[in-house]
Fold each of these.
Amino acid sequence: MATSAPRDTLVNVDLGARSYPIAIGAGLLARADIAAHVHGKRALIVTNTTIEPLLADVLKARLAGIEVEVLALPDGEQYKTLDSLNLIYSHLLEHGHDRKTTLIALGGGVVGDITGFAAASYQRGVNFIQVPTTLLSQVDSSVGGKTAVNHPLGKNMIGAFYQPQAVFIDTDCLATLPPREFAAGLAEVVKYGAIVDAEFFAWLEQHAEALLARDGDALSYAIEQSCRAKAAVVSSDETEQGRRAILNLGHTFGHAIETWQRYTGLLHGEAVAVGMLMAARLSALRGWLSAAEVARLAALLEALGLPTAVPAGMQVEDFSKLMLRDKKVLDGQLRLVLMGAIGEAMVVVDTPPELLLESIAQSL
Amino acid sequence: MATSAPRDTLVNVDLGARSYPIAIGAGLLARADIAAHVHGKRALIVTNTTIEPLLADVLKARLAGIEVEVLALPDGEQYKTLDSLNLIYSHLLEHGHDRKTTLIALGGGVVGDITGFAAASYQRGVNFIQVPTTLLSQVDSSVGGKTAVNHPLGKNMIGAFYQPQAVFIDTDCLATLPPREFAAGLAEVVKYGAIVDAEFFAWLEQHAEALLARDGDALSYAIEQSCRAKAAVVSSDETEQGRRAILNLGHTFGHAIETWQRYTGLLHGEAVAVGMLMAARLSALRGWLSAAEVARLAALLEALGLPTAVPAGMQVEDFSKLMLRDKKVLDGQLRLVLMGAIGEAMVVVDTPPELLLESIAQSL
């Protein structure tokens, strides 16, 4: 008896001439035709030393007929630097890669962001394919074309908007992800429900347990809906002139937490979880969100194993000081993403400072 | 009696949403409304230590109402590096520039190329204005959006296609340009006539003396026609997928000369002059250009004080070896820009090696 064919899903990111497909499925890396998206004869897989022994050979097997090299960067956010970028440039030049080469990012957000910017800038732009291996990178950084490296004076300060040819998401990669990292990725999944899709939010409330158990079907569906939501938002505003900023729900509060902890406490997704709840409380103070909706958000985050409390010791002043130097403060204005309802977000610039302070105080 | 108004010329570079104006005129920097093209409240002028004392204050006077800083990089191609780029990023971050800042490049091609790439990559792209001060940068690098820095393993290997908001060209800046640099810029001017504008080529033949005397009207007209020619080519192929490559007439031969001399002999424009004549000879060998047309090109280059001879000691093998590792060798194919007539260029990939060698031998 024949087994049923694997159920791979395709999501299209609609950006005119820069449109591209996202393929999602369990075990996808064992069967996807990745070579079809390599337009030249050569490719460089950029990965890190943790992922390379696990997946580099699996990926190479999908690139028959193409001359492929592998470059493994050291693993960790502290290596998301101009120096790592230069390692990629030097490899490409030492090995004679020309403008027709393709860079393939195999790893989490750090690998994807560095490799994307290397592809954007090597000989003024070469082809680029994303193979994200963490939940966070699958639902967030691999979709939408934001690439960057950090500068000692600020995260993601150097980069480009640059779209890949294609994204391949294999949910089997998540089997070995540590529980905190997995949950941190789910925070961004919740975010998509919160900002644009009330129905998906309700689905998440019903399937929290299945997701935590890493059920393949539940994961595929959650990733697909997340990618669809992000793709729709990005399609409407590729270079973040306005609307795209709703993807930052919880990020301004979360960024203040991460900075206050000097990036040694909560993971990014965990800080975003706390930040989303703070944004929801502020939205309630402005009269837009009901107390019951704030409670639903808190309950879902907790059900998914995410923190909802501000780190002990952090004060109202810590937030207000840090949030006013956030890069989202354009021309001195505090831009915040708030919620009009579950499934509806807006970018507002008229937050009364006393309400901001009150929402922070409520969260301590 | 009122004096007549200065005759500034406007050339539009037509790139859809990325279109921008080029303003050209003698004394333009004393009157142009540059502030109108700065969209935020802050700007950083990036220049070099040679230009800063001559022109930084003149430019600042055109930016009333805007908070302006000046950053002077060391002067020279050897500083067109990732390190110089990082000086710009660090300045911007130390001084709290956000995504609404504007970078203004004041200088020659090196300053323009570095500053353009800094603008392309700082916070994923900020506004950018070009104020080119050398003839070469006025007619070439400031138009078309190619930005880059060098890598130890190759020139212009790291960069982006990134268009400015506006370009301001003051022909008075050329008064103090050393004669060799001035002539080197004229080589690129001749190129535009050679590739797309036979009428302009004939005009150059008639006005070589006026140009060498740096006559204001002649210079303005030559720069205007050069910018129009480049703008038309760039509009048809912004990211150099095909047609734009005709702008490289003479560059593959010229690049071989520069590399053989380790960039310590001929200036770029001088090497391009020699290279254009070599390309013309090859075009004649293919039967496309008459001997008379080759002679006209040689005579015009000489009238403008440009070299036409290959450097002493350089052999046929030096060219063939270097040209086959040029980055224009895509997928192992030698792409050359040849001439079908004066005012007509084409990109060809089917050059018989023996004709290439013969054209080189003719030039030694």
Amino acid sequence: MIGRLPRYYRYLGDLKSEGVERISSQELSRIMNVTASQIRQDLNNFGGFGQQGYGYNTSYLYDEIGKILGLNKQHDMILIGAGKLGQAIVNYMNLKNRGFSFKGAFDIDPALVGKSIANVPVFKMEQMSDFITKNNIDIAVLTVPKAAAIEITQVLSETPIKAIWNFAHVDLKVPERIQVESVHLQDSLMKLSYNIRRNDEN
Amino acid sequence: MIGRLPRYYRYLGDLKSEGVERISSQELSRIMNVTASQIRQDLNNFGGFGQQGYGYNTSYLYDEIGKILGLNKQHDMILIGAGKLGQAIVNYMNLKNRGFSFKGAFDIDPALVGKSIANVPVFKMEQMSDFITKNNIDIAVLTVPKAAAIEITQVLSETPIKAIWNFAHVDLKVPERIQVESVHLQDSLMKLSYNIRRNDEN
């Protein structure tokens, strides 16, 4: 269920920006390609926003799902690994709109330290732990190679960080209080390759 | 099940490069944090590579899973959208090692056209369809904004492309013969935010 919430949030955001004030579960079903009964079941879990025969208030539902997703709170973040992927994430995601804000970046490359990426200052890796504590950082975005990711995760585990958004190609071991969400790009590409092979054979 | 195969492949690749020749389902269970019976069930689906009391041949199992994932074939790719995220993907993923190779990139920005990204030439967007046909391109990697992604997907649907690896924040509609795998970074970040909120409340 939580897996489907960001998708609801995305579609409702689109509807909202198109000026759609109310939407029925049937209509949402059609555009999202999910059964209407699945939609009613999902959304009733979250307090029955809808009214029979009247549909959902798009804006209200959007805000409520946003709260469930914790998007009504400010999340301060750091980037660990200020290479190309890290820079792309800082630049691309336009995160501030949703309450996510990069406060600093950390790298071992002396050529990057002291510079900025989209107004985010790059510091030495050794400054990371202190920075997290002093600035109440919630989320560390990890865009370093695998071996470094394992090492840095050990350091992060000693800090008050709440979550790691992991782009390294490895499963991280962390204390239970730290949340991890991994984006395994290579796994995703392998799924695509698997589906191509299956389709070629049919 | 297919969802778990890339992870098996990743762990077996690590074991292989550490020089581990054989591994038991118990040991694999421990390092992967999956039950041994789940592992036996998954891997027996693929032809019973293992032998009771003797374990799996790491290298053989790695290669067989690679074949199932279609990784024994060469996949030629193009990048659509040569901005920061696209550049990061071309640079970062070290794709050639696994039979994935970028043959060209396409962008509407005249400042990028004619240049190269990690030796991949950037062409005009209008040249895309012809390029796909002439070069037998299998996979289009889509790193453009949402509105452009929808438009370009319509163009791609008229070409012999086999798959789209989608980084745009939208669900793409394609003919059934085209495979789509999406990396929705914002959805992933929202899951993290949700888990932080839940953990804060406990």
Amino acid sequence: MIYFVTSNRHKYEEVKKIIGYEMEMVSMPYPEIQADSLEEVAKYGIDYLKDKIEGEFFIEDSGLFIKALNGFPGVFSSYVFKTIGNEGIIRLMKGIEDRKAEFVSVIAYYDDDKIHIFKGICKGKIAEEIRGNKGFGYDPIFIAEGSNKTFGEMEMEEKNKYSHRGKSARMLKNFLKNRLNQP
Amino acid sequence: MIYFVTSNRHKYEEVKKIIGYEMEMVSMPYPEIQADSLEEVAKYGIDYLKDKIEGEFFIEDSGLFIKALNGFPGVFSSYVFKTIGNEGIIRLMKGIEDRKAEFVSVIAYYDDDKIHIFKGICKGKIAEEIRGNKGFGYDPIFIAEGSNKTFGEMEMEEKNKYSHRGKSARMLKNFLKNRLNQP
């Protein structure tokens, strides 16, 4: 059994659909530092949690990085979402031609000894308006490369094919599979 | 001698002008957590620093809380400033009538045993456009109650009379004075 420490049920469902392994959600809060990268935030979280949780576990941190806004909302995506929301991002991007953005997901897995980092990136752009009500967070304003829909217009299975979190979760799945096959 | 742990020379100059005591700037980085209040951020910082610094020291954390934006940029003010800047705030506030905002400063002072918190609040509003080039950060878009100028249009001495940091620094000054007078 491995544990996914998160208080976000959407994230848990998305990752569970990919991983396959026996997995449980643990809703234990941990400090998230104001760092420049998701990796730093995740490593700090693991250091805090490793003495508090028995066995193997992982956390996931993700963010939306908009090029024309110098990476905003970035590592503070969830806070920014809670305050200015998708409406705020659309407002900040009004009239801006370069709409390039990246969704990034970092999974930090603690194997009871070392930290393993898996980073998934999904390139795309910010939509001109809010579209769809599936998923969560910035999903209704993000259009992945290779699609015309926003993540908010996709079912979970389709979103997972493109998404940053789908990628990091598949990396974790491979890591777990390869480890089991080792002598 | 007391130490002000900060990497922001503007803050150091403002507080030094008020405190009077022998004071030195220490530019040592410390983790800032993503918390809901400046107090939590400051307390976490003190806990990290107290074993690393000899003697008495303090840190200061401040933020701009805009009512119509649900408190944004709040505890993440410095990150938001680095990415979308004053232009971003003005853009988010375009056409919004309720321009009420508060500048908040929290000083956390560690007396080698306990943490003392001093909180200064300056009520005001967001200007319609960027004005002035004095101060730092959001100063050019904040107008304090009782003034028509932005902080960006004030000399440091005038700003200190109104400002959140002026208030928290005067509280710290009084605390230090009273402590010296005790038997």
